[in-house]
TrEMBL record:
SUPFAM superfamilies: Protein kinase-like (PK-like). This is CHK kinase-like domain-containing protein. Gene3D superfamilies: 3.90.1200.10. SMART domains: CHK. Residues 134-326 form the CHK kinase-like domain. It comes from Culex quinquefasciatus (Southern house mosquito). PANTHER family: CHK KINASE-LIKE DOMAIN-CONTAINING PROTEIN (PTHR11012:SF54), PROTEIN KINASE-LIKE DOMAIN-CONTAINING (PTHR11012).
Amino acid sequence: MAPSLENLPQYIHDAVARIAPEQGFTPGQFKISFEVGSGKGDGFAADMFRARITEDGRELVVLCKVPPVNEARRQHFGATIIYEREFEAYSKFLPAIFEFQRERGVTEELGEGFFNVPKCYLAYFEAEKEETAILMEDLRLRGYRMWNKMIPVDYEHVKLLMVQLGRLHAVSFAMKDQRPEIFEPFKVSDPFSMMVDGNEPVMGMIQTSFERAIGLLNPEDKLLPKLLAFKSTLFQDLKDLMNPALCEPYAVLGHGDCWINNMIFSYKNGTPSDIVLLDWQICRYVSPALDLLYFIFCCTDGEFRRKHYDDMIRTYHQSLSQLLQKLGGDSARQFPYPVLLRQLGQHGRFGLLMAACLTPMLVSESRDLPDMEQLAERFEETRTMTLEVKTDETERRYRKRMGEVLRDVAAFGENAKAAEGLGVRTLLLYACGLCEVYVWDV
């Protein structure tokens, strides 16, 4: 079931009406209509609506991101912290990032910095009223398209992301070093860990997803005891992995929710030419490795990792180094390549856990996904919640995709002692921090 227009709160109408005059529409003369902007299974914690502002043949289409209209879904999947965080991202963090770059001569026109977010018309948040809305440009009207989440992402699309993540993280290193007083408010806690803590439905889904993933292993698999040990301390480990104290002085403001449905691409002659990062609800001050691990383990497959992992990590770090230098910094001092590899190894379990949670959605047709509103309402009665979709084809895709993640961990781990000379692929040799051999070859 898609979000409904029937109970759309009045404050959302008011928010759209507020920006209309700012965009050249005449007060009292324009009209506003709404339509659903997202489909079944598109998100846990927000609804999307499309607002059309019209006047005398002129039209402006605005995407409105708001908390779930459904009360049960808002109660179990919504969290004030994530709405406030996205408000802060669009009203404070991202504008400061853009301004810092411009001050150092890096502008949108040069195509060298990080400016790859949608235009935001309004970021609104009122905690006491429990009201929040992000009004932004609908990039699809300019030809941007989303990747099909069911297909593992290919080389050219991943490369675009690695370049932009490198640039995003580079600005953090530059601001921390040169303008620490401006960067200090960027050191925000992780909203995901705060949202999970004590949230019975979310914790239950994470636990169930992880159990389902490790259930793919044979009982004699050498990896199984380590994964079972990880399971016993799962939520504390998750908090630790997102604790910036474990990676200082190398923590950055990361995107936080770096999977394929939170980015959109433009194309030239059929080739991806640009990427825009969406959904900043979980931006957080953490290890830069988390964004990389989240995406690579969730959104690529085993064949891609075997062929291109080295290249992608080097592309990321090269992009970071190039922008950091333009901003007056030095990656050799502020974020050396061996430190990146170490961060990836120390935080690798995060990638495995996110893959366990997200893969069921990635391999499912939208029509086969459970209805989030019904799921939330059913939890009121059963106190259980799972995203598992029981169709044969979905199960086949799940076992292949998740099995490749587990095989990467197991196969590369068993060959760790023979790993010298393999370069950055070392990450996969001790992927998820579950293997004891660390090999640095940079």
